[in-house]
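Hi R.,

Here's the chain you asked about this morning:
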Amino acid sequence: MAVFGILMSFVFGLLITITVQSRDTQSRAQALQDMRLGVSQIDRQVRSGNVILDPEEEDFSTAGVDPFYSMRIFTQEGSIPRCAQWRVIDSDSDGFGNLEFRTWDPAYPSINDVTPWGVVAHNIVDVGVHPGDSSQIDPDDPLTWPPFWADKTLGTRTEAQFVRITLRLKAPGEQADSPATSVTTVVTGRNTIFGYPSTSCAVVPPT
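And the predicted structure, written out as tokens:
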């Protein structure tokens, strides 16, 4: 009976460990899928866009987050002109952030058509670990890349034409020393090609 009890304790312990690992794996996979879909949506908006604003110029007054943690786009996705804004924010200060998204009419505030912030992806880490300015970002060191930044090493047509997006994911409950999963890509704005003013979508609704 004693041996059987020890074996059962071992088996139940193993089952609990497998269950927890399976749950974390499923949570990470779902969050990673959501994050990739979000990045894909940003890319579609930029490809249909006219102006992409420099994320270094974003701040709490325009996005409710620090510079490099938000990006605004003047887009015509679906042939409908809209201002689109993305941000990475830790709304409950638990160390895990969300990728959020909203849009508004370019004529705001004359036309008060603003969608509320919607969560696109969860479990984004390194929220609040941001550079003071672009000089602290090393193009050769991905660990220094914030969520949104104008990568001037890729081109010089405009300051904000090439924007690198980097999102890091880690499921809650994972070990502290386990590496985060990263998704990174570069989107290209069309500011100078069609000559739209850089002041497009400069008026931002309250966050």
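The chain has one domain: 2-194.

Let me know if you need anything else.
M.
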